[in-house]
Amino acid sequence: MHPIAFRVAGLEIHTWGVLFALGFGLAILAGELNARRVGLPSWLYVESSFYIAVAAILGARLLYVALEWGQYSGQPWRVLNTREGGLSLYGGLIGGVLAVWGFTRWRRVPTARFLDGGAPAIALGTAITRVGCFLEGCCWGILTGGDWGFLTRFAPGLRHPAQLYEMVLDLALFAVLWYLAPRLARLPGQLFLFYVAGYSAIRFAVEFWRDVPHLWGWVTVTQPAALAAVLGSLALAWLRWHRARRSPGAVESHNL
């Protein structure tokens, strides 16, 4: 664990923030490179990056606080303190998608195609940010029950590196989406739906090694939502593919 990356004039720069910035920067680059493969100009991803970043961070924090309100109801000022962790990727995804919707309406470009261009980039950015989570000590895993594992400043004992488990799976998802991007370009929105299904499946699996609240038995709070996202996105992808097969001329006009 290495929560402080460096200090500048007495100001502590946290490792998570550095890795988030690195992941976001590489995600923009990946979006630019993937843009032409899905039929969009690359400059759109640079121009939209600020709006998406702000909306994603706000969405991630707001959803986390809403789900964990018991921690903050007696100390509401802690809502502004993100140094102790507390960002929901699903909240960030919702905020980011809303920002994309507004941006694409403003720039008059297809929302679904824009999301397709960014789908591999999101997986890459998430993978790098999870390394930041590991070094920061947040999103910690369950106890290993043995003499191996990693320490976190938020909980005692040797823990599973759940953040790194997810990082490896996110990188694999990035590779799959990158490969599929030009092959699914004829039906805008499919690649993004596969991203949602893939990431949700990853999250469902990694939850088994995370130290998080459970609804009942081995089922965590996040797993039902993750499973619903997997099934819902795959069902929607199949319906859109089936509809496109029946109306080939309408394929290029599909949107989310």
Short description:
The chain contains eight helices and six strands, in the order ββαααααββααββα. It is mainly alpha-helical and 256 residues long.
Describe this structure in words.
With 256 residues, the chain is mainly alpha-helical. It has one domain. 61% of the residues lie in helices and 9% in strands. The chain is built from 8 helices and 6 strands, in the order E-E-H-H-H-H-H-E-E-H-H-E-E-H. The strands form 3 sheets. The protein has a two-stranded antiparallel sheet with strand order 1-2. A hairpin with a 2-residue loop joins strand 1 and strand 2. Helix 5 packs parallel to helix 7 and helix 6 packs antiparallel against helix 7. The chain starts with a strand and ends in a 10-residue tail after the last helix. The model has no long low-confidence stretch (mean pLDDT 89).
